[in-house]
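GSCFA domain-containing protein
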Amino acid sequence: MLFRTELVVKPFPVQLSLDSRILSVGSCFAEVIGNQLKTNKFKVIINPFGTIFNPVSLTSLLETSLTSKKVTASRMIESLGIWYHYDLHSSISASGQDKLIGMIEEKMEQTAHFIAQADWIFITMGTAFVYQFQDSGEIVANCHKMPSRLFTKRLLEIHEITEAVHALYNQLIKLRPQVRLLLTVSPVRHIKDGILENQVSKSILRLACHQLTQQFDHIYYFPSYELMMDDLREYRFYKQDLIHPSGMAEEYIWDKFVHALVDIPTQAFIKEWQTIRQALAHQPFHPETATHQQFLRQTLAKLKALANKVDLQQEIALVEKRIYE
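Structure:
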């Protein structure tokens, strides 16, 4: 008797290896996948502009980076001595306007340089709800706790999302013809918008992703949202806030990601690396014992055997420091 419907994610036609260069951007779930990639020694940059929930603001930021446009000072505001930009997350802030402009321009330059060599851009869409200025109608990525009277809240149309991603993709392939986009809808529930409204929002995002994958050969979709909502499908797989996936759920989605998107040699590396990471995390009561010292030497040998695949200088130095001569 079956008690759940498992979502089987088929292997992608093009897969990741340890040599792949990946930019993971978007909602907070972009950081979940990005950090897993980083932990497993992939070459990845994660949310250089902070968490950006709506896809139109996100694609606009990436386009601005690629075209070297100047930072729009008119979209900056000061609150309690700290400067913010309406197009970026509040974590990107500074004590002065010029300082913030310099910070943003540096991040954009670094992002553009990375994209020029990137193999994959992962875009995690969080919500189709956006806030726009009452007077101009311009969309903001973050309201930065400014008075609500300045903004109007609305849902994006599907075509607004597809056109924004299409425009970004055109810019990307001019710079890096072989780049691929991986789209996903965040499994995080945006129930502050309302439970019914969240479903409408996620549906818009999902339809936009579907249309894009049908239109372009090098744009793919990974079902993070469906794995959470239709495969796991229980509150025990959420954190206490009942909004964010639990650690167990994140691991499950990551495991599905690996088996669908990572090539076989790299899957073998991840499995071996997980064993070594557990060894590195081991905290003995008596580190001076012969048994533990032998354990460290064996771990060091394993690290050196993998050092030709990824940079393990930091880990090797750590183990060597623990070994008594």
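The chain has a mean pLDDT of 96.
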